[in-house]
Amino acid sequence: SDHMENIYGYLMKYTNLVTGWQYRFFVLNNDAGLLEYFVNEQSRHLKPRGTLQLAGAVISPSDEDSHTFTVNAASGEQYKLRATDAKERQHWVSRLQICTQHHTEAIGKNNPPLKSRSFSLASQGSANSPGVQRRPSQNAVSFFSVGHHRLPTGKRVPIMQPDHLVDVREMMSQAEGQQRDLIRSIECLPVSGHLTSLDQDLLMLKATSMATMNCLNDCFHILQLQHASQQKGSLPAGTTISWLEPKISLANHFKNGAAQNFPAEINKPASVREEQSTAEPCQLTREPEEINPDEELEDICDNKEDDLGAVEEQRSVILHLLSQLKLGMDLTRVVLPTFILEKRSLLEMYADFMSHPDLFIAITNGTTPEERMIRFVEYYLTSFHEGRKGAIAKKPYNPIIGETFHCSWRMPKSGVATDAGSNFSAHSPSEQVTLSKDTESQTELDYYTVKFVAEQVSHHPPVSGFYAECVERKMCVNAHVWTKSKFLGMSIGVTMIGEGLLSLLEHGEEYTFSLPCAYARSILTVPWVELGGKVNINCVKTGYSASINFHTKPFYGGKLHRVTGEVKQNMTNTVVCRVQGEWNSVLEFTYSNGETKYVDLTKLSVTRKRVRPLEKQGPFESRKLWQHVTESLRDGDIDKATEHKRALEERQRNEERLRAETETPWCTKYFLKEGDGWVYHKPLWKAVSAAQTQQTDIN
């Protein structure tokens, strides 16, 4: 009762994507059990701008940072709030939790629970039996009978001992089994009739039971932490025990009636135990590793993606997922079902954008700035077809922080487009510099080498950095991308936030570019992918720029995957090239001289990337890291793939929690933070600049 005091003060409140965070004056009314907010303190005497009933609410500190927390009301309304520091957040969270508990218990006293009833599904008989027929007044929830049990009054709950925790774990396992039986019983119902497996009330019951088990798992974890702290002494000052992410992912119920096991640690496959016990990445050597392209072999792995089809088997999973999402909701932290995954990491997907290295190298072979810009646009537009593996609506693995991917391409010099009359082997004396011994030995080879490296440099937000270079042609590209997913109703949108930089060192030119948004459409029928949005390519030195529009399909009529664009000289505002077509089919380039060129993407030759064999890869290289998930998906064993995926994600969460508790910053391996972006630690432009400086000193 000493803590049942009214508190007030300013907090930041998240409104929406447009408005963002705004300062508001909040008042905790303990007597009424209300959290109210006003525009400012001066308007406190006016009607509140918003009010939340705290009875039955859940107050959750966020794991995004140490300042944010959420208030989830029983009505479904949510406030996302941010304090000025961790201490103020703890103060608000503690007071809100005390008030919530008080008013929730008061409601419980005024509304005693129903008499104990058995937990069973109504008997299922023939379609005409009374157990199956549903009266109009009977809702889905009343179709089930749920047991309620009350603790004996007047008895204090004893402090948990280790053997009691074992008993709790056994009871939790029984509850998990009952919850699985409930899910199976719902999903075994017919898809049509009076009571179906797609009934909204039943879907809500599934979601509620899953949320309950997640909450119980979190509470059990807190008990374990408290017991561990009693053995080691008190928790360090300032330590808070936060709610964890869901322990039961949606993928556990991806099959109708499929039984899921929650085995003890000793019963887990060795590969899963290995994934969970791998050492903390930041404790491994974080020194950049120089990958020798000669160790890489032509990729023989052909992970063809099967079409998802009409997703009939997974319809209940999709509907369940939709029941938990809201329009505009950020999907970064949502656990998506495993069956929608591609058999590659997002980092490898970025590498597949380079599957036409001949067009990439040919950019620098353009004899004029205009031609080089047009060639870059041509390469840019042809990269998405292979990078997206066509229009199959599947999602690559979310990279683990510290994950890397390396590969290279070898392109015969005769296969790279040049222009008649140009001699690209002749350079001025200042350009005839030796970059490395490797370069010296490669001058006699009949192929160019393009090397690629990508790294997941951040987890929240999820940011990837990637870099590619062709030393022989003195060109490189550096980019960082933050993938931000949003739920849009019957589709999912992915915004690619970031910027890329192409450097043509022979010409002293830099081209900045952005990436389009991607959309997964018709997620309840036949999912498909389209690109959308406007991207810009710009070269400040030459004054040439390109504007490209990826058009999303209109509601009625219109073509799929349509793209249009133009290249122009900014100083004269003259359009020198126009392009139109489909980014996964045929593109038409029309030049200022009236000539037209067609590029059929389906007939373009794809150069296979070269990767090191798995046995030579490090533990955090993409294919080695995800190998068990990929093998399980390839074998069609979704259960096993889900288990391996969950082990990797749980390990990442544990490591992140440990770094937060010890205040240990994450150490990247190949990319360095510069301003708002990430730059490769040894970009080619630095090597060329250093070599030219050395040559000048010699002269």
Automatic annotation (TrEMBL):
Gene Ontology terms for molecular function: sterol binding
Biological process annotations from GO: lipid transport
Family that this chain belongs to: Belongs to the OSBP family.
Region (Disordered): 104-137, 638-658
Official protein name in the record: Oxysterol-binding protein
Keyword Nucleus: no
Coiled coil (residue ranges): none
Role noted for this protein: Plays a role in regulating ADIPOQ and FABP4 levels in differentiating adipocytes and is also involved in regulation of adipocyte triglyceride storage. Weakly binds 25-hydroxycholesterol. Interacts with OSBPL9 to function as lipid transfer proteins.
Pfam family, one: PH
CDD domains xref list: PH_ORP10_ORP11 (cd13291)
Subcellular location: Endomembrane system; Endosome; Golgi apparatus
Annotated Polar residues bias: 117-137
Listed InterPro entries: OSBP_sf (IPR037239), Oxysterol-bd (IPR000648), Oxysterol-bd_CS (IPR018494), PH-like_dom_sf (IPR011993), PH_domain (IPR001849)
Domain called PH: residue spans: 4-101
Keywords noted in UniProt: Acetylation, Endosome, Golgi apparatus, Lipid transport, Lipid-binding, Membrane, Transport
Subunit structure: Heterodimer with OSBPL9.
GO cellular component, one term: Golgi apparatus
